[in-house]
Amino acid sequence: MSKSPLTMEKAPRTGSFAAGVLGAVILVYSLLESMLAPALPMIQQGVGASTAGVSWVFTGLLLSGAVCTPLIGRLGDIRDKKVVFLVVLGVVVAGVFLSAVATSIVVLAVGQVLQGAGLGLVPVGIGILRDTQSDGTARTGTGLVMGMSALGSAAGVLVSGPILTVLPYTWLYWLPLIALVLLGLVAVPALPATRPSGDGKVDWTGAALLSAGLFAVLIGVTQAPSWGWSSAKFLVLIAAGVVLLAAFTAVELRIDRPLVDLRTGGKPVAIVCLVAFAVGWATYAVYLALPTIVAAPPAVGYGLGETATTAGLLLLPLGVVGGLSAALTGRLEQLLGSKTLMVLSCVPVVASSAILFLARHDAVVLALAAGLAGLGVGIGLTQAINIVSSSVPAERLASAIGFVLIVRTIAGTLGAQVSGSVLASDVVPGTPLPTWSAFSSAFVIATVVGLLAVAAGLALPRRIAAAV
C-alpha cells in the first residue's frame, strides 16, 4: 500500500515530556472512572435515583465509550490529532463538571455519557506519539500510556476509600476535574500539532451501523443476568446486533474510505483482536471475583472476611505490575521479537485465572493473581498496539487502535456478565454468596479464554510486515 500524499514521515519532534502529559491525562481519566464504583450507593442517594437507574448511568458511560471511540479514532486519522485530543478532553471535562453538580439522575446521566468519550483519548494520544517521535521512543511512550491506564484502573478503588471518609462523594469528580483542567492547560503548548495522516472523510453510514450494533450487543449482554440468557429480549437484541455488525462489515469492505478499514493489517491485526478479547475477559473476571472472595466470611468455605480496603490493596498489584511491564514492553520486544513476546504475554493471563483455584483463604494467592493479570494487561495490550502500529498505515492507525480497544471493552463486559451469571447460579444456602464450585466454573471459563489467546498468538507470522 502506498503512502497517502498527506502522510508525514515520523520524526522525533517531542521528548518524554509530551508522553508524560499524555500518560498523566490517561491516568487521571482511568482513576476517575474506577473510583466511582465504591461510591455508587452515595451517588444513588445524592441524585435520588433507583438502583436500576443509577446502574444505567454507568452502563451509559460504557456504551458511550464503545460508540464514540471508533469515530474519534477516525477523526484522529484525518484531522490534527492534537486538536482532536484537546476537544475530546474538553468534552470529558464538561461531563465531569455536570456529574459533580448533578442533583438529578438525568443530569448525572448526561455527564457520564460525555465522560465515556474519554476512551477515545488513548488511540488519539498514541497516534500523536507515533506521528511525532522516532519508532523506539514512540513504543516506549505507548507503554507509558497503556501503563498509566492499567495503574489508574486498579488504584482508583483503593484511592476512593480514603477520599470518601473525609469528603462528600462529589469530590471524586472535583479532584479529577481540577487535575484534567490543569493538564489540559499544560497540553496546549506541550503537545505538537500533527498533519492529517489521511485525506479521507468520515464514513457516517459505517459509524451508524457500528454504533447501533455495539449498542444492541452491549445492552443485551449487560441486561442478560437480570433478563435471563435465554430470554426473548436478550436473544432479539443479540440477533439485531449481529445483523447490524454484519451489515457494517459488508459496508466497510465495499467502500473506499471506511470508518474501520478491515482490509488493512491482515492476519496480525485479527490475531491481536483475539488476544485483546482474552485480556479483557480474564482481567474483568479477576476484578469481579477478588472483592467477593475477600469480603466473604471463612464460614462459607472460602473467603478472608476482610473489608473493601483490603480488596483494593490486593488489586493494586494489577495496576502496578501492569504499569511497569507496559513501560518495558518496547525493550522486551527488541530482545524477544514481536511474536514471542505476544505469546508470552498471554501466559500470565492464563495463570492469573488458573491460580485463583488456590485462593480460598489465601491473600497472597489473590495478590499474585492480580499481579499476573496486570502483567498480561501491561505487556499484552501494549504489544498488541505495537503490532497494529507496524501492520497498519499511518492514515489508519488511530482508528485501528480504537477498534482493538473496543474489542477489549466488549470482552470485559461479556466476561463480567458471564462470570456474574455463573456465580449467581449456585449460591451458599441462606446467603447471596456464590459457592466455591461456582467460582471454580468461572475460573475454568476464564482459563480457557486465555488458552485460546495463546493459540492465537502462536499463529502470528514470525516477522510482522511493516505497513507502507
UniProtKB/TrEMBL annotation:
GO MF annotation list: transmembrane transporter activity
Pfam family, one: MFS_1
Residues annotated as domain Major facilitator superfamily (MFS) profile: 18-465
Domain of life: Bacteria
Protein's cellular compartments: Cell membrane
Segments passing through the bilayer: 12-32, 52-72, 84-107, 113-129, 141-165, 171-192, 204-221, 227-248, 269-290, 310-329, 341-359, 365-385, 397-418, 438-460
Membrane topology (UniProt): Multi-pass membrane protein
Gene3D superfamilies given in the database record: MFS general substrate transporter like domains (1.20.1250.20), Multidrug resistance protein D (1.20.1720.10)
InterPro entries: MFS, MFS_dom, MFS_trans_sf
PROSITE patterns cross-referenced by the UniProt entry: MFS
Chief localization: membrane
GO CC annotations on file: plasma membrane
Keywords of the record: Membrane, Transmembrane, Transmembrane helix, Transport
Protein name: MFS transporter
Organism whose genome encodes this protein: Amycolatopsis echigonensis
